[in-house]
Amino acid sequence: MTVESTAAARKPRRSSGTKRAGAKTASQPKASEPQLVQLLTPEGERVKNDEYDGYVADITPESLRGLYRDMVLTRRFDAEATSLQRQGELGLWASLLGQEAAQIGSGRALRDDDYVFPTYREHGVAWCRGVDPTNLLGMFRGVNHGGWDPKTNNFHLYTIVIGSQTLHAAGYAMGVAKDGADSAVIAYFGDGASSQGDVAESFTFSAVYNAPVVFFCQNNQWAISEPTEKQMRVPLYQRAQGFGFPGVRVDGNDVLACLAVTRAALERARTGQGPMLVEAFTYRMGAHTTSDDPTKYRADEEREAWEAKDPILRLRAYLERESAADEAFFAALEKESEALGRRVREAVRAMPDPDHMAIFDHVYADGHALVDEERAQFAAYEASFSDSGAGAVEEGK
Amino acid sequence: MAVQKLPLAKAINESLRVALDTDPKVLIMGEDVGKLGGVFRVTDGLQKDFGEGRVIDTPLAESGIVGTAIGLALRGYRPVVEIQFDGFVFPAYDQIVTQLAKMHARALGKIKMPVVIRIPYGGGIGAVEHHSESPEALFAHVAGLKIVSPSTSADGYWMMQQAIQSDDPVIFFEPKRRYWDKGEVDTEAIPGPLHKARVTRTGTDLTLAAYGPMVKVCLEAAAAAAEEGKSVEVLDLRSMSPIDFDTIQTSVEKTRRLVVVHEAPVFYGAGAEIAARITERSFYHLEAPVLRVGGFHAPYPPARLEEEYLPGLDRVLDAVDRSLAY
């Protein structure tokens, strides 16, 4: 049974959902914290919002179904990758489970000429950019460190050291401004990364140079085992004010709100109004990675409370409420989802190990005498294991 | 005039000016590089002539300087960033080592990182703490970076041109105590390869290999040794990554003795790498073990002690004598 079919089988229960959402857990917004921007309640009711409604006025039933499809397929891909790790096909996987709305909402707000700097968990954004999902798996299988061409989809390589890419985004955006282009840049990072000095420096640089960049923080409440209390004493989005640009907290499990808020932030960037910080308040429903064990540091009740706010169930409830999708749509999507899972499985299993000599490839663009020397020495060493000389390299594969 | 007599700082300044003039993608970034022209005036007058959009005074954040330079390079620019002093580079070490050096390989060659990081380095100017260090080995250890250091005005001019044209990240260590030394620069010359060592003085009895600020000391030592009848060859290595081992090997197989000299601490320094490789390459040619002269395994001392700390003429000659005594 797939994750999606599990999700589809359950209906959001308004009463229990409300009760759960109200349960006291460490990561709930505190009473003193301001409201987050929300256009869809966890029960799938559309909430009016004077500031942001205009940014989703063009959304049709068809585009809603598109967002739903994006989220379902992303979750399916993610679940498949987790399974592939359990089967030993991947060394590691960082699941985005629970963060689909934040990623699809923000990802679908982007134009082709915008440029994305992801962390290592932006599988949903990659999907929106048209990056083949199987490309994302190479680094988790250990056949490369990324390897896709960032320029093809304006989607940079995954960055594993947290926060580093926010500076690349600020610099790229400085370049966009120099070029006089009206493209925008979006930098993804998390609540844990917000403690990194590079994130603070990227805020400073982008503010000082009025760079067209949106800082999109997915506050998923947990930095591996550390709750947000270990990273911050004020709500994250409020930090922006100290750097001289606006910050906003959005319901990160509400795909419509994420789309609206990101569109607004991108519009600011495009029109020369500089950076903006978006804090998507969401939840990492799975483990940090397949190597993690969340039972050691967080309670099941907290996860259950967030499951009631599931981004996919929420949009499904809205689609059904609005009669914007019928059973045929959901059934077709289920089929498509299965096909995607199968394609990913097959692609990963067919992924060849790199040639031994790939160690020495692309260390430098213009070459380096030492790399050349070591490559030749290693080739000779490998060849020495066979009577037929160079044939040993082939057999070694 | 194609040939001018310029101090090293001015030669680099002229080189940067040419780069800004010929390639609109070249940017200068750093702390105080604009109106002030840098604390050593290496970028003097460039902002006035090329504007604040090309010669950019940055916030005082080294990681931010290098991190945004990476982003600008991804956008198609060729940033030349200044780290104000050697000891200030470490906040940027993560961006340099973890991001800049590896980006080309991570993308399987699909993106390039034409970023030059200029670092005034080394001692001898009576500075306070963190202003006199020689951290080149910490960078040479990292694959993906290229490390060079000019010792003359001509090299300052031409090596900077080549570093900016390189599609790889280049860390350009400028010997700050030589900034005011004048030398001839032929701006119409055809420069040799960036990473090739140069025989600066020929000799037959022993080879001194050095780079950056120590080349001058080695030339003085060779002159002093000549008065005692010893013929010392001096190599200016010019590049610490890659190192031109072929030129060193050729010299050593002639002189049969090698002393490597640098300001940086001897322990794990460039001298250690050169000694190991030359021992492998030229074992049967050597009449003496490769000796090293350099800094001690101690923090760079207060200025009143730097004359004792820095390898000077006598320390180099002492090593020459020890080698010849084998």
UniProtKB/TrEMBL annotation, chain B:
Gene3D superfamilies: 3.40.50.920, 3.40.50.970. The keyword 4Fe-4S does not apply. Its cofactor is thiamine diphosphate. Keywords: Oxidoreductase, Thiamine pyrophosphate. Residues 6-181 form the Transketolase-like pyrimidine-binding domain. The keyword Oxidoreductase applies. This is Alpha-ketoacid dehydrogenase subunit beta. The lineage of its organism: Bacteria, Bacillati, Actinomycetota, Actinomycetes, Kitasatosporales.
